[in-house]
Amino acid sequence: FQDLFGVSMVVPLMNLHIKSLGASHTVAGIIGSLYGIMQLFSSTFVGCWSDIVGRRYSLLACILLSALGYFLLGTSTTVFLFALSRVPVGIFKHTLSISKALLSDLVSERDRPLVMGRFNAASSVGFILGPVVGGYLTELEDGFYQTSFICACIFLLNAGLVWMLPWSEENTGNREHQQGNKETGSFSAKANRDLHLKSTTNGAMASDSLFQSPWIQVATVLKRIKGIACSDLWDIFLVRLLMSVAILLYYNNFSLALEERFGVKPLFAGYLMSYSSALGVLAGCLLGPITRLYQHNTYRLLLHSSTLTCTLILLYASALSIWMVVLSSTFLAFSTTIGRTCIIDLELTIGGNEASGTLLGVGQSVTSVGRIVAPLLSGIAQEFSPCGPPTLGVGLALVAILIMNANKEKYCSRGNVKLKN
């Protein structure tokens, strides 16, 4: 929550700040693209590195270096300093991916969608509140600089919280046992013993790997990435890419499309997007009952949510009134939140928790590719019609659904084996 609260205070104000420094639209666009490219290439390496040295040290390093980036942003009085401040953030701002990998280490496979849903809900709340506070602070004198320093302090506070967590194996085992008894009761005694044994083994391996030479760590990272690249997970990552591009095509130029099609002011579009974000929080909290309704069959839930997403984007593309857009946005907030959580759970189920950081890093890189490709496709499609981008998104979502249907046996057989184990 604090991570995305701090970031969302600053990010909406960055274009205004770089223009106030005298940068042109082209320079601002280049700096934004460079940040995306750094995220694309670094997420896989940082995620794999967290598997090798352990979650604690990798998470601390990412938080502290991100804090440094936002501190530099708070001192950026020239375009060069602004660009320089984006470098550590672009390379090391993978705190959410490592946190998800840590959660997948701590919880059982059956409880993972529920916990990931709550994690996404907390993140969404931070993203809803952050822009409001940032907009208020920027009204003050030197507001952007103050906002950046506050964001850096929030990251330092997060680093302190990570350092204070009970990382020793004995404390971790006791904490999990108490949570199992007092809160959910979802972990049996055997599951606690298994988890305690796994955390002890992982802790020993991480402490050994931390003191290895950097060259050995780099070689290990490259070896793990090669293993993921040569695995049979290509279809899952392709589904993730297609669905992410389809959703981004829906949201790209959303305000402009509503104005051209229905004469709606951008303010209404902003309210509609905030409304969708709030519903996304509710969807994250409801993931537990939904997964129980589907008997923890992540593949079937992902297939149904993707089909619903495709149908809702088609409804938006063919909408004749603004109320049909509101209806599609309402249910799309639920289907996209559920689908995003399910695709991560399916990656970890089939790929295995042993390389959860690497898998999440590769998935983040795939999403970054979608963020780079989607604006280009959206601009080309909008040349033909305001409904062009969502119509193209419907086609991509259909391809993703066909891929999932074609690989149904692989998903179901592996998922059942994993749950039995």
From TrEMBL:
Membrane topology is:
Multi-pass membrane protein
Q: Where in the cell is it found?
A: Membrane
SUPFAM superfamilies named in the record: MFS general substrate transporter
The record's annotation in Pfam families points to:
MFS_1
GO CC terms for this protein? Answer: membrane
Q: Does the keyword Secreted apply?
A: no
Q: What GO molecular functions are on record for this protein? A: transmembrane transporter activity
Q: Which residues form the Major facilitator superfamily (MFS) profile domain?
A: 1-411
InterPro entries in the cross-refs:
MFS, MFS_dom, MFS_trans_sf, Sugar_transporter_CS, Tet-R_TetA/multi-R_MdtG-like
Q: Where is the signal peptide?
A: none
Keywords carried by this UniProt record? Membrane, Transmembrane, Transmembrane helix, Transport
- Per the database entry, which stretches of residues form a coiled coil? none
Q: So where does this one cross the membrane?
A: 21-38, 58-84, 144-165, 233-251, 271-291, 312-334
Q: Which PANTHER family match?
A: MAJOR FACILITATOR SUPERFAMILY DOMAIN-CONTAINING PROTEIN 10 (PTHR23504), MAJOR FACILITATOR SUPERFAMILY DOMAIN-CONTAINING PROTEIN 9 (PTHR23504:SF14)
The UniProt family comment states: Belongs to the major facilitator superfamily.
Name the UniProt record assigns to this protein: Major facilitator superfamily domain-containing protein 9
